[in-house]
Each structure stands twice: as structure tokens, then as C-alpha cells.
Design brief:
The chain is mainly beta. It has one domain. It contains two helices and 16 strands. The chain has an eleven-stranded antiparallel sheet with strand order 1-3-11-6-7-8-9-10-4-15-16. A three-stranded antiparallel sheet has the order 2-14-5, with no helix packed on it.
Length: 239
């Protein structure tokens, strides 16, 4: 399913799943792993609009950040490395593919950059996404710049579920004054993590309901440069 706002040049494809698919309830939550990904394309085959911010809402999902080991975006950013993060704070891994080109020419998507992603739990309804680009890699996993930065993520609770929200730093959107960088694909796999807390097996991510006719809604709101906004949903299997 694609969302193509009439005034925008981006189109989106969102994918999501939980493992296991069996859903818990508010009284008996079920710990799960989560897979989340999306692709962004330009309707005319050029470089997509650069992403400013995105918010991913998982309906009927709770996140327990205070029950697990923690590593903050600030500590990673100061070290320009995640080597100091304690064992057990790494909760997900994945990748992001990017294209960049002349800031004044949306047809220019000549520079490609592959970034590895590591998601760390930071506690107090926060997470940190460590982004790494390595010019020493070859082929489709290369990035022309040496990059190591951490992006803070806010965990937002609501009656519908839990959202993860992050803003893209200016240094990633515009690595040079003459360049604009655009995300074209993100894939992130969150591990199923549990810990005993007061006699209960608590999950980092837990399903708590909202499984409707075998499907759970996952919705991403994309806010792009220029004030363009698009909302795209998918349905994750559940039972």
C-alpha cells in the first residue's frame, strides 16, 4: 500500500511485524520482537524529499525502557562510538540506504551511502539510534564519508499504543552546504528481550491488545523538508 499526497513527490511503503504474533492483553502482556522498515521513492525517479522527522506508532504495544540496561545518545555522541554501551542495552540492529546529490537539483541522486543502525535503550522513555557510515566498506555497503553519530529517540505513550519519534540531524540531511541527503530505505529488527521484574517476565516491547481481525496497525508519519507530511499505515499479523 502506498501513500502519495497530491502535492508531494514522495511515495512510501511501510512494513512491520511482531514475533511471536500471538497478542497479549493489558493484564497479561506478551513480550515480542519487532521488525520495522520502509522505503521512500520519488514519483519522477529522482531524489526523494529529505526526511526531517518521523514518528512510528505501534498500536497495542507497550515499551518498558526502565527495566533494561541503558546507554544514552549523549554518551555515544561524546565518544563517537558505542563501545562504552553496557551489555544488554543494545536492542535492535539494521541499516539505512541513502542517496545524495546537488541541493538545487532533485534529479541528482548520484551519491549513495549505506549506514549501519544500532538501537540502544536509554531508559526514562528514551532510546538512541547509533548511525555508522564506513568509507572503507565496498560495493553497496560503502559510504563516502566516515560517519558516527547518535540520534535521540523519544518514546511516547498513548491510549492507542506507543510511538517512537526521531528528528534527522542537519549534518545527515545536508552533509555539505551544496548537498542534500535523502533516505530511501530503512530496516530495523528489535530483539525479543525479557527480564524478571517483581516476579513477572517483562518484555522490552510487549503487545497489550488491539489485535483486530488478525491484524495490528502500525502507522508512520513522515515529515519532510518543505513542510510536506504524509501518513502511511500497514497491518502486522497478530492472533
Amino acid at each position: 500500500m502506498f501513500a502519495v499526497p497530491a502535492h508531494a513527490a514522495n511515495e512510501y511503503d511501510v512494513r512491520a511485524s511482531t514475533s511471536p504474533t500471538k497478542s497479549g492483553t493489558t493484564k497479561k502482556p506478551a513480550p515480542v520482537g519487532v521488525n520495522l522498515g520502509f522505503t521512500i521513492r520519488d514519483t519522477e525517479g529522482g531524489r526523494p524529499l529529505s526526511l526531517e522527522r518521523f514518528t512510528a506508532l505501534f498500536e497495542g504495544v507497550a515499551i518498558n525502557t526502565n527495566a533494561f540496561a541503558k546507554c544514552s545518545a549523549t554518551s555515544i555522541e561524546q565518544a563517537k562510538s558505542d563501545r562504552g554501551c553496557p551489555s544488554g542495552s543494545l536492542v535492535a540492529s539494521g541499516f539505512a540506504r541513502n542517496v545524495a546529490g546537488d541541493r538545487s537539483n532533485r534529479k541528482d541522486a548520484s551519491i549513495r551511502c549505506y549506514l549501519t543502525l544500532k538501537l540502544y535503550n536509554s531508559g526514562n522513555n528514551k532510546m538512541a539510534l547509533f548511525v555508522r557510515g564506513d568509507p572503507n566498506q565496498t560495493g553497496d555497503k560503502a559510504c563516502p564519508i566516515d560517519l558516527a553519530t547518535a540520534i535521540p529517540i523519544s518514546v511516547i505513550r498513548s491510549a492507542r499504543g506507543t510511538s517512537l519519534r526521531l528528528s534527522i540531524p542537519e549534518t545527515l540531511k545536508h552533509p555539505l552546504a551544496t548537498l542534500t541527503n535523502a533516505l530511501v530505505e530503512v530496516d530495523l529488527k528489535v530483539k525479543r528481550m525479557t527480564k524478571k521484574v517483581k516476579g513477572r517476565n517483562v518484555g522490552l516491547f510487549e503487545t497489550t491488545g488491539r489485535c483486530v481481525r488478525g491484524k495490528r496497525a502500525v502507522t508512520i508519519t513522515f515529515n519532510n523538508e518543505g513542510g510536506d507530511t504524509a501518513v502511511q499505515s500497514t497491518r502486522a499479523a497478530c492472533s
